[in-house]
Design brief:
By secondary structure, the protein is mostly helical. The protein contains six helices and no strands. Helix 2 runs antiparallel to helix 3 (79-105) and helix 2 (49-75) runs antiparallel to helix 5 (137-165). The longest helix has 29 residues, at 137-165. InterPro entries: DUF305_CopM-like, Ferritin-like. Residues 51-193 form the DUF305 domain. It comes from Actinomadura rubteroloni.
Length: 196
């Protein structure tokens, strides 16, 4: 009788264990790196405080870059500057969505309540943005390139910190992409600036 009960309980215990593991804090990663059926490309792998801070800081950093790119579309005179600005916005807008999705999955706020955005590497002040918005033509081109080089350098520093200390594979992969892409764009902007 005891053996019959034990045999009957084993499948039930195994099912309960699998169910409990499925709702844990550290679910196993999907082979594609995405959550099955989840609309945002949020990671399911284990993450740490650095991953959260990276996303929370990079979202407003990217938003400012997109804002600067929007000004260039209307105020720049150089076709190369306009094209570069368009590519920056096209790359960084989806990354904002991606990082916001991660924070939602991790049940973290999209920004830290005590965060001072002006203290972030490469972040422009309100005065800097106002000054840029008042320029047009070649003067805008020079100011935009100078500011965006500094902005990109800040993003690269933040991404390098994520590469060193982050735990989440998807966040680290995005950081690597930011380093590669924005380092190349810095080189392009320096070339354009020399020609001005």
């Amino acid at each position: 009788m005891k053996r019959v009960l034990t045999t009957a309980l084993v499948p039930l215990l195994a099912a309960a264990t699998l169910t409990a593991c499925g709702d844990g804090d550290k679910p196993s990663a999907h082979p594609s790196g995405h959550m099955g059926g989840h609309m945002a490309p949020a990671t399911t792998a284990a993450h740490n405080a650095q991953d959260v801070m990276f996303a929370q800081m990079m979202i407003p950093h990217h938003r400012q870059a997109v804002e600067m790119a929007g000004l260039a579309a209307r105020r720049a005179s150089s076709p190369q500057v306009k094209d570069l600005a368009s590519r920056i916005a096209a790359a960084q807008d989806p990354e904002i969505t991606k990082m916001s999705g991660w924070l939602a999955t991790w049940k973290e706020p999209t920004s830290m309540p005590s965060m001072n955005h002006g203290s972030m590497d490469g972040m422009m002040s309100g005065q800097d943005m106002k000054a840029l918005a008042e320029l047009t033509g070649k003067a805008f081109d020079r100011k935009f390139l100078t500011m965006m080089i500094e902005h990109h350098r800040g993003a690269v520093v933040m991404a390098q910190t994520e590469q060193r200390s982050g735990a989440d594979p998807a966040a680290r992969a995005l950081a690597a992409s930011i380093i590669t892409t924005q380092t190349a764009e810095i080189a392009t902007m320096r070339t354009l600036l020399k020609a001005k």
